[in-house]
Write a sequence for this structure.
């Protein structure tokens, strides 16, 4: 009923959208001012810059190692690549609290810019009428206000995900337009900032054509060579060791929003989480097989979209599914790292009229359950209910994993309505489609 009233009143939709924007701005300013998180994610960034300045890059992935004889700010392991640590040396020259404020300010500007660009890009899928545009304006910024992975960065002192979010938005726009240098650069730089993001390159490398492979391959090789020349090989071996450690390390389920964390809980006992350091090899191998099967399913979806969509729409779908595949392949997915899920969610919001009721319910449930990605909410749940029983562990694992689970299922189950969203986008030319043969093949489609 509320939705129908909003659709009939563009003025009310615009008011709701501007109200959401005002709340986003107010919340962002409060988050910048908040001093929480000094010892969490921000400390990894700050200490990385300190190690570069002190010439201690050999310990870049040893969070406990002293820096020039001084105790590091925190014990959180640096999540990026050695080359990206150079970007944080300016922050390391400031006092930690001031540096954290500056870091969050820069991240906030990236988030705002990314949201504006994403809104302007996605509204082509929402229709051309004033009522449709106003409705999307309200739902987009209302969803952005509600989607907690975007704002969880403030609770951990800031995160590289703010910059990654902007890079993914720019990369999506560039990839749809066939500007592969832009999309390859964005995904590669995102991978430099957060090493697991390099996994997002797998689907485009496999499906996006020779030109993209050549550009992305050249960029990866160039950055890798530069990094080895500047930092040596040993610190890169430490990065690989760290990634292998994260793959095997048994983590409490309330730390991760991975698609299959709940499966691991089903295969383990409560005592295992308190006595084991590494995930049993059989359990880890089974979970990896499920992740690879899910990504293979995404590849099949890409091919299904190719049969129905024009080249630009197909490139768009490949990029969205690629950034969704990354958190599926990653073992440890903290709440703020799910911020990139907002990109595929906005496509679903733009194509709301094409979605069946169950798909709409899945989108709404995804937004509601995203509240569980905020560390403050997770802390309250753990303190309130405790993790003394297997049932509580399983419930928390499902709660944390639902946004990823529901988003993946929505794209898998309702692929046909989503393809129709692409077909009705503003500016789509039916002449691009060859009757009986699907889309025409554009350059490097």
């Amino acid at each position: 009923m509320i939705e129908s009233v909003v659709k009939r009143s563009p003025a009310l939709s615009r008011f709701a959208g501007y109200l959401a924007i005002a709340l986003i701005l107010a919340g962002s300013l409060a988050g910048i001012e908040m001093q929480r998180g000094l010892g969490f994610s921000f400390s990894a960034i700050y200490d990385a810059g300190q190690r570069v300045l002190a010439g201690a890059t050999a310990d870049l992935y040893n969070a406990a190692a002293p820096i020039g004889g001084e105790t590091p700010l925190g014990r959180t392991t640096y999540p990026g690549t050695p080359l990206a640590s150079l970007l944080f040396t300016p922050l390391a020259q400031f006092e930690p609290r001031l540096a954290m404020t500056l870091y969050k300010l820069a991240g906030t500007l990236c988030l705002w810019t990314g949201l504006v660009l994403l809104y302007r890009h996605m509204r082509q899928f929402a229709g051309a009428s004033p009522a449709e545009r106003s409705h999307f304006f309200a739902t987009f910024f209302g969803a952005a206000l509600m989607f907690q992975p975007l704002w969880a960065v403030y609770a951990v002192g800031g995160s590289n995900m703010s910059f990654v979010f902007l890079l993914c938005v720019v990369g999506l726009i560039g990839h749809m337009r066939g500007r592969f240098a832009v999309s390859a650069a964005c995904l590669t730089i995102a991978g430099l900032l957060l090493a697991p993001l390099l996994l997002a390159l797998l689907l485009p490398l496999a499906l996006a054509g020779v030109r993209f492979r050549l550009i992305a391959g050249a960029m990866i090789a160039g950055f890798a060579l530069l990094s080895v020349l500047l930092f040596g090989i040993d610190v890169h071996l430490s990065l690989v060791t760290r990634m292998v450690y994260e793959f095997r390390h048994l983590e409490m389920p309330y730390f991760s929003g991975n698609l299959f964390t709940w499966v691991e809980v089903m295969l383990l006992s409560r005592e295992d989480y308190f006595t084991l350091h590494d995930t049993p090899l059989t359990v880890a191998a089974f979970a990896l097989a499920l992740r690879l099967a899910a990504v293979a399913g995404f590849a099949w979806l890409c091919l299904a979209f190719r049969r129905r969509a024009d080249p630009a729409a197909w490139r768009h779908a490949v990029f969205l599914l690629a950034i969704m595949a990354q958190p599926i392949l990653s073992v440890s997915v903290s709440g703020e790292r799910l911020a990139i899920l907002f990109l595929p969610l906005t496509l679903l919001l733009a194509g709301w009229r094409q979605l069946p009721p169950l798909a709409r319910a899945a989108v709404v449930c995804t937004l509601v359950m995203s509240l569980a990605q905020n560390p403050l909410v997770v802390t309250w749940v753990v303190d309130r209910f405790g993790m003394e029983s297997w049932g509580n562990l399983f419930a928390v694992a499902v709660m944390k994993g639902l946004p990823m689970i529901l988003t993946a299922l929505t794209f898998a189950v309702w692929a046909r309505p989503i393809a129709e969203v692409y077909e009705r986008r503003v500016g789509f030319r039916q002449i691009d489609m060859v009757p009986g043969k699907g889309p025409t093949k554009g350059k490097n489609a």
Notes: Confidence is low (pLDDT under 50) at residues 429-445. Residues 109-439 form one domain. The longest strand covers residues 433-434.
